Amino acid sequence: MPHDHSDHPHALLPSDPALRVKALETILTRKGLIEPAALDEIIDTYQNKIGPQNGARVVARAWSDPAFKAALLADADPVLAELGYYGRQGEHMVVVENTPAQHNMVVCTLCSCYPWPLLGIPPGWYKSDAYRARAVREPRRVLADFGVTLPADTAVRVWDSTAEVRYLVLPMRPQGTAGLDEPALAALVSRDSMIGTALVGAPQSNSEAPA
Fold this sequence. Notes:
Layout: H1 17-30, H2 36-49, H3 52-64, H4 66-74, H5 76-82, E1 93-97, E2 102-107, H6 116-119, H7 124-127, H8 129-137, H9 139-145, E3 155-160, E4 166-170, H10 182-186, H11 191-195
Parallel strand pairs: 1-4, 2-3
């Protein structure tokens, strides 16, 4: 007789991913393998405390405060630590500035080293073999795939993150933002712009905003 797998816990899991996660959480909690309170704390940390909003705040402040920007570019670690952005996957940070003459892009050719405290969990494409191989070999084509076309006289520099050094791109401040405060500036900054695979666009005027 073939073995009946119907009594295995995984056989009881629903097909919907969200329901499967909830079912697994319930099973592990009942077995005493996880504490719901600890799990809630981890989820809250990654949703609200760790993520690209942190990096966006850093960029907005650098745009607004020349002294902060100079210190950040000179030695990022103590500046970021003072803001509370440090720890595992955020050690030895280097911030590189985009200018009209040079556009920067970050990759990890060996694995997926990434500044978690500033950008959160890396996107799937950042970890893909295709991005890791092509970013170094044909960066302009990779940027084009992301919808970024640069002037011919703008150089592209690719920075290879490692376990020892991680990079954050400081994108160029867009025009039309002179009157914006730091929270409004931060709202313009995307995760991809801090990796270098996107540009920061000018804010929409009220008349251009969608209804």
